[in-house]
Amino acid sequence: MFHTQENIDRHVAYLCPLCVTNYIILRKQGLSATTEFSLDHFPPKSVGGTLKLLICKKCNNEAGSLYEAELTKKMNYEAIGDTTLGAEYKITSEIFGVEGKYTGFIKKVSNKEFAVDFAKKLKKSARFLKEWLNKPPTNSDWEMKVTIQRPDDKKVAKAICI
Hints:
By secondary structure, the protein is α+β, with helices and mostly antiparallel strands. The chain has helices spanning 57-81, 120-125, 127-134, 153-159, and strands spanning 13-15, 23-27, 30-33, 37-42, 51-56, 88-95, 101-108, 114-117, 144-147.
């Protein structure tokens, strides 16, 4: 649309706010678009959004997996440092002396303490983790490396259409 010599009046073009590539334009000959558009919730319905926004179908189809999941991750990430007790966040952990990496959750239990836990299914099926949990080391010294993946702020911004 920006490569044409045609004089375009103000307020007659609409760009998809997520990809800023696809557009709808009203010309004298009628309405034209680069692709189909549809309504989507803003902010995402999964986090309580009730307003609707017009976005291209491609972005609408990808929004859940690409952006909305990242927004949920960001909310959980921020909740870890929040004063709210019980906020959980997905982690990857390595327990030194135990083979493998294990996905689990870190949860704030007090203003100074966090607890790490694993899914019940994982506790039963992961042999090395199961052995370690059922028979902890005799000394009280053990070490765990916890990795918390930072949310992608660019995807979060797209989820809330900044």
